[in-house]
Design brief:
single chain; 2 domains; about 260 residues; flat
């Protein structure tokens, strides 16, 4: 079960644009001429693919040394997670994670808990993430309105859904009610209402690992991951290398499972 969960959840990270105009800017050639557009539109500008991850074990250390800026072409290609472009999916790997968290284990045993129970420890959270490569184009062509059941679920970022921002972002208005409605197929029958009211139950939001402050990379470069580990690891898990460790744990477990099957 452990390795199966890792295979499904852990080897996928999402590279998403940060502005609804990215598809149009890309078609107009601004990715080649405007650095601001490149920073806002990593997916549309081809800086990172939709599905991405760190590809080198040294990525977190290189990122802390400032290489994401100094050697951006290489780092954005090889170290998307550590450079803040890719947001890996994550999951609590143990049934006891919530209980351990309530018992204070996230603070007492962070090395184990942060990567094995990232949701319960607040390392990961539910966020809007486009999960299809064509989302920017579909949104610009009006598919969010013409085909909401499919497009709004697959492309919440490109569709600019209201539930993707603010204090109540990616929260079901009522957990029990949303689960019941979802079981009754309301996410498909009544998508416009359900995807906004029940984004977790309807699968609009993904549990991902990413920084929660735009200054995280600078703080990590200044050494704050080491001087203030408890605060930084939950606020800046990408820049502090926690997201990379989650990816690596899942890859190791999947590899172990494959090797075992070959014996």
């Amino acid at each position: 079960m452990y390795s199966f969960i890792a295979a499904v959840f852990g080897l996928v990270g999402f590279c998403n644009d940060k502005d609804l105009s990215c598809a149009g800017w890309s078609r107009n050639g601004l990715c080649e001429t405007d650095d601001t557009v490149k920073n806002l539109c990593p997916h549309s500008c081809g800086i990172c693919p939709l599905i991405c991850s760190d590809r080198n074990e040294h990525c977190p250390n290189w990122a802390k040394d400032g290489e994401c800026t100094a050697s951006s072409d290489y780092m954005h290609r090889e170290c998307g997670t550590s450079c803040g472009l890719c947001s890996p999916k994550c999951v609590d790997l143990h049934d006891d994670c919530k209980r351990w968290s309530h018992d204070g284990q996230c603070e007492q045993n962070p090395t184990f808990m942060n990567i094995n129970c990232p949701l319960s420890c607040g390392i990961c959270d539910y966020k809007c993430k486009d999960t299809h490569n064509d989302c920017p184009g579909w949104a610009s062509e009006g598919e969010c309105v013409a085909n909401p059941g499919h497009t709004m679920k697959m492309c919440p970022t490109s569709c600019g859904l209201d539930m993707c921002s603010g204090d109540d972002a990616c929260k079901d208005f009522n957990t029990t009610t949303c689960k019941i409605w979802a079981l009754n197929d309301q996410c498909t029958v009544n998508p416009t209402m359900m995807l906004l009211k029940c984004p977790i139950a309807c699968g609009v939001c993904s549990a991902v690992c990413e920084d929660n402050n735009r200054d995280c990379m600078n703080w990590a470069t200044e050494g704050h991951c080491e001087t203030n580990p408890l605060g930084m690891q939950s606020l800046c898990p990408q820049s502090c290398g926690i997201c990379h460790k989650i990816e690596e744990l899942y890859k190791v477990k999947v590899g172990w499972e494959k090797e075992k099957d070959e014996l």
